[in-house]
Structures are given as structure tokens and as C-alpha cells.
Amino acid sequence: MSNQSDLLLDVSILYRSTQKYYDRMLQKLHMTYAQLPILIMIYEQEGITMQQIANQGVYDKGTISKNVKNLQTMGFIRTQESKKDKRNKELYTTDQAKQIMFHVYGIRRDWWHHLTKDIQTDELDHFISLYQTMAENARRYANTETHPIHFYQWQKVSLDAYPDQVATVLSTGGCNFRCPACVKSDLVFLQESTQEILMDDVIDYLNKRRGIIQAVSIEGGEPLMQDGIAYFLRQIKTMGYKVKISTNGSFPDRLKELVNEQLVDYVSMRIKNGPRHYGKAIGMDTHDVSDIQESAEFLIHGSVDYEFWWQPIKEFHNEKEIQEIAQWLQGAKRLVVAPLPAGARMIQPDLHGLPAEQIKQAIEILRGTIQDVQMGD
Ligand code: SF4
Questions:
Q1: Residue 224: exposure state from Cβ atoms within 10 A (0-12, 13-18, ≥19)
Q2: Mind telling me which CDD domains this protein's record contains (predicted)?
Q3: What is the distance in A from the centroid of ligand 1 to the CA of 344?
């Protein structure tokens, strides 16, 4: 296991161990772990409504209703119509619950003592304060309706990221593929501690660089996985920037939406292999290429400017695969063939770029069906 922080796994271990402990200890009270925080909230805030519990605990309504109903059936709580708003029900603990709360708090305290054994008081205070801040951030974010876009790398000025334009280059994190030859493992295996670049800082930068920077190039990971991409692009388009998106082509609907809304001026679609063995080149056993095909056809027959981009890898691309790619992209306007850079750090480090002589032969094959095949950097 990596020695990098893996908060999600740690939280999951903590959660499951806590659940096991509570379920065992609560057995004699005929309660479950899921009911406990809800009962404590009602006991400490008599008259609280289901909506308030949902907001405070970031629960969905179904979970609350189910647990409230069970607690009611067990005789631990009762409901009462709210005097302020008749549509709401207020929740109160019964005398039966009040009798057991001492035991409930005792179970909770014992577990806490067990978890915090050998931790100094000042360390614990600091941890609790940080933990509460994280929970508050999580609660706030979970209730946010808008979807931000997450950037993790930023090359502020580039002369070759966008054809004939001075561009700024932003990289989003996360990808639905795990290509063995991927050189962006830090964006694919995104660590929790990776510093995010705030969208507002990018907007601010672009606002001040109008006339100096002309284009924004958005790369991945896979940028079309980002729910907030349209929102972000609308903002930068109103500033007059040209936009290039690099994509693996697996989100044709979103690609079409962005292009049809005129939010994208140039698409670079990354082709990984011929259709038969596509899965092999993206780190999967098999892969249905229909989405990728849909994106490719949209570009070939559509009006937005584009290129296909392909990195030849010795272990994946023999002549047969290259002929398949040529067949697949028949009629395409442009293909950039990008040799693997020397010293590239790939997810699977023992792969090799195709030798120069074979790349030349590949280009000859590809030129049979594609109008413009260029050697990339
Ligand atoms: S699609 Fe691109 S970013 Fe995603 S794993 Fe493959 S090479 Fe890496």
C-alpha cells in the first residue's frame, strides 16, 4: 500500500469498526448503529424536525424516515405536529428512551477512549478541531447545488498548446481510463492531499490577461468527466477566449453539448488503439468502443475544428492495429502521431514507444485514409 495519505480508506476502517462495536454493544438495547446519532440528536434537541436532522447529519430523507419509524416502533421517540408549521412533525424522546440514554452515552464514551488511547490531549484537541472543520466543509459542499470544476495543474503560458495562439493550460484530475502508457499518473491516481487550483483564481488570472493570453487549453485526466465544465467555459467564453479540450472521447453527449453551445473551438481526441483491442490500451480487459466511435464520428462529420492524437506504443500497436486505426478514422481531417518522450514515466513503466522507423511506416499507412497526418512533439 502506498505510504501517501489515504483518508478515504482510514475513514472507512474507522466507520466499519465503529459500526461493528456499536452494533454489538447496542444489541441489548435492541438498537442499531444507524439509529444512534439520530436518537442523540432528538434527545439533545427535543422538538427537532426530520428536515433539521437531514441538514445537520447530511442524511437523505429516506434514511431519516426509516430510522425515525423504527425508533418510534421501538417506543424510543414520539412525533408531534409542529405549532409553527403544520406540515412539519417535531420529534421527542419518550421516557423509555430517557431511561437508556445514560447507557448510550457510556457506550459512546468507552469507544472514544478506546480510539484515542495513547494520544496526547493537545494532539487530540488539535485533531478534533481539524476534524470538525473537515466535517463542516464536507457538509457545506454536500449541500452545494452548483458543480465546480477541479484543476490540479496549471501551465500559465504555453506557445504550443493551442494552434497559433498563446494559451494557458489547465489540467483536471481523475480519469475513467487507466491507460498503461499514461504519463499523468499523478492526475489519474489523484491523492487527497493534491492541492487544488481554485476556479476563481483562474477566472481572475484570465480577466487580467485579456489580450495577452488568447486561448485556454483544458487537459486531463479526462476533462469531460467534470460536471462543472460547461459553467466554467461559459465564463471564459464571455471574456473572449478560444477553448481547446483534450478528451479520450468516452463522453460523446457532453462533447456534443459543449460544441453545440459553442463553448469549444478545438478538440483534441486521444485515440488509444484500433477498436478490437481498445481495452488493452486503456488498462481494461475489454471495452465497448461505441461511445468513442460516436465522438469520433461527431468530429469527422461535424463543424468544430479538431485533431485526433495517437501515441504509438510497441507493446500495443503492431501493423494490424495501425491498419485498424486507419480504417476507423477514415476521412478524418488530421491526426497527430506523438512519439513517446524519452524518459516518460508511465503507469506501466516497462512499455516502450514504437521505434522511429516503425512510426514512419505507421504514418504512411495512416496517410492512406486520413488527410493530414503529422508527427507531433
Ligand atoms: S485517458 Fe489520458 S489521462 Fe486518462 S488514463 Fe489514459 S492517458 Fe491517462
A1: buried
A2: Radical_SAM
A3: 14
Residue nearest to atom 8 of ligand 1 (CA): 182
What is the predicted pLDDT for the residue at 220?
87
- Show the cell assigned to 337: 502521431
- Tell me: the pLDDT tens digits for 342-365? 888 899 999 999 999 999 999 999
Nearest CA to ligand 1 atom 6: 179
22 CB under 6 A from ligand 1? Answer: no
Pairing state between β 334-337 and 77-81: unpaired
Residue 340 Cβ contacting ligand 1 at under 6 Å:
no
pLDDT recorded at residue 146: 62
User: Which residues are CB-neighbours of 173 under 8 A, at least 6 positions away?
Assistant: 150, 151, 152, 187, 190, 194, 221
Using 70 as the pLDDT threshold, list the residues of the chain that sit under it. Answer: 1-5, 140-147
- In the chain, the domains with their CATH numbers are 7-142 (1.10.10.10), 151-375 (3.20.20.70)
